[in-house]
Amino acid sequence: MPSNIKFIFTPVLLLFISGIFFKVNAQSSLDNEISLQADKKPLGTILDLMEEKGNFRFAYYGKLAVKDSIVSIHADKTTIRGVLDQLLGSQYEYKESPGFIIVRYAPLELSLVVEKNNSSSDGQQIVSGYIIDLQTNNRIENVSVLEKNVLQSTLTNKDGAFELRLKNASQTIELTAVKENYKTVTMMFLSEIKIQMGNKKSSSDYIDGDFSAIERSGIGRFFISSKQKIQSLNLGGFISKVPVQASLIPSISTRGMMNTQIVNNFSLNVLGGYNAGVRGLEMAGLYNINRMNVEALQMAGIFNTVGGSVNGVQLAGIYNNVFGNLNGLQISGIHNSVKGSQIGLQMSGIYNNVYKDSKGLQVAGIHNTVNGSQNGLQFSGIYNIGKDTVQGAQIAGLFNYAKELDGVQFGLVNITDSPSGYSLGLLNFKKGGYKKISITSNEISDINLAVKTGDNKLYTILMAGRSERSNEEKLFSFGIGAGKNISLGKRFTYNPEFSTQYLYLGNWDVYNSLSKFDSSFSFQLCKGVAISAGPSFNLYWSEKKDKYGNINTSTFVQDRTKRYNIINDSSKDIIGWIGWSFGLTLF
Question: Which Gene3D superfamilies match (predicted)?
Answer without folding.
Answer: Carboxypeptidase-like, regulatory domain (2.60.40.1120)
